[in-house]
Design goal:
five-stranded parallel sheet; 12 helices; 23% strand; 19 strands; alpha/beta; seven-stranded mixed sheet
Length: 429
């Protein structure tokens, strides 16, 4: 007699719940919670359930993410319901559960998110409203979204977030922006306060809040566009800075795309890595800089310009590149930029070896020695070799003339697939 097939565990019900609690849930969501033998959620969410939900209640510990596999495994043979705030798949626990169990093992029952409620109260079209979450993330990531006339919703970490946001807006030249803090959206206790960022004086209110921002720049605010080539004065630097026009051309050659990872070798002031990350919220970068003072400066620039997720590794290349490979969360780079140290033995080969097949390598130099190296690699391997020259108009007595900046030689190349070794200079085989 053949053994009975093993039955898969029941799907995990992921139930979105709002500040209105039990009364705001659909019939299907209530049924899932009544039938659950184990209900996992935040303490605040668990307190919203009535006694008829008789399952064992388990509060998420802190930090939450590392505890997900353990708690699911502990109760996997029982009927599990997980409570989420609002829509579980919108900056919610649904993502972690899908990654852990697979989407086919979930039954997601969403509730309107706080963003949907906020747009409904404000009369803002949801599709035209940018959302930035500050829950468990630095408030400085809001900086990249600041543009005149834009409407933003910031998801608060707690009651102190509105004051933090007001200070950030003011520091970035957006002090005249109108702020509205909407609390307990969807509940009977729903309320809001409003004011202007530069004169924000409201005391901390309810921790469950969303901040609506009408972006207004002051007259003297430094304009930071949405494409690479930020003004040089946006950066703190000691002269080691890829200048604006060269930077724009370099980012064009690197061609960032959502979700991709850049290694910026010889970071200087971090401008290439920072503007790579500013192109899309999911872009990642790591900057390698041997000088500790410059490495600290890169971190400050990244925080101020809305790329606090930039990882900075202090150490010489190529020896420090092995540290990057050991950081599993960084994965294999999609692009590598070499802005300094090209003549260091083994650097170019190490970067090429680390690059994924199909990835891009871009190297800039102003010295004859490094230029000769790039020319050899170009002859052996192809790609594009470009001379970038920029001149600026300056006063010449009572007239105006051109002042030429040092020309930059740039080599850009795509790593073929399947992977190939980088040829020895002069080898045409």
């Amino acid at each position: 007699m053949s053994p009975s097939p093993v039955q898969p565990p029941p799907p995990v019900s992921v139930v979105g719940i709002g500040a209105d609690g039990w009364s705001g849930l659909s019939g299907g969501a209530r049924e899932a919670l009544r039938e659950a033998e184990v209900v996992i959620g935040g303490a605040r969410q668990l307190d919203l359930l009535p006694p008829e939900c008789a399952g064992v209640r388990v509060a998420w510990p802190s930090p939450l993410r590392p505890a997900v596999p353990r708690l699911l495994a502990e109760h996997r043979e029982r009927r599990i319901a997980v409570l989420a705030s609002g829509d579980p798949m919108f900056y919610g626990i649904g993502r972690a559960l899908a990654e852990e169990l697979g989407p086919e093992s979930l039954r997601v029952l969403p509730h309107p998110s706080s963003v949907s409620y906020a747009c409904a109260r404000l009369g803002w079209p949801l599709e035209d409203t940018e959302v930035v979450t500050l829950v468990g993330r630095p408030a400085s990531r809001l900086a990249v979204a600041l543009h005149e006339g834009r409407r933003l919703l910031a998801l608060s970490a707690d009651a102190s977030t509105p004051a933090t946001v007001a200070a950030l807006l003011t520091a970035h030249g957006f002090g005249p922006s109108r702020m509205r803090v909407l609390e307990q959206l969807g509940s009977e206790a729903e309320a809001y306060v409003e004011g202007v960022a530069e004169s924000w004086a409201h005391a901390p209110g309810d921790g469950l809040n969303v901040i609506a921002i009408d972006c207004r720049a002051s007259q003297d605010a430094l304009r930071l566009g949405a494409v690479p080539g930020l003004p040089d004065e946006a950066y703190e630097h000691d002269g080691q800075l890829t200048k604006r026009h060269i930077r724009a051309a370099t980012l064009g050659a690197l061609a960032p795309a959502p979700g991709e990872l850049l290694w910026d070798v010889g970071g200087g002031s971090g401008s290439i890595a920072i503007e790579w990350m500013r192109t899309h919220a999911s872009c990642r970068a790591v900057s390698v800089e041997r000088d500790p003072a410059r490495a600290a400066r890169i971190a400050r620039n990244a925080d101020r310009l809305g790329a606090p997720g930039l990882k900075v590794v202090t150490g010489p290349a190529p020896s420090s590149l092995s540290e990057l490979s050991e950081l599993s969360e960084l994965d294999v780079p999609d692009a590598v930029f070499i802005g300094g140290g090209l003549t260091a033995p083994g650097l170019l080969d190490a970067c090429w070896e680390a690059l994924r097949p199909g990835g891009r390598l871009v190297a800039n130099t102003v010295t004859l020695e490094s230029e000769a190296l790039l020319a050899e690699r170009y002859r052996a391997y192809g790609g594009e070799l470009t001379r970038l020259a920029v001149a600026h108009a300056v006063p010449v007595g009572g007239f105006t003339g051109w002042r030429q900046a040092m020309p930059v030689t740039q080599w850009s190349v795509r790593k073929p697939s399947p992977p190939a070794s980088l040829p020895v200079p002069g080898d045409r085989t």
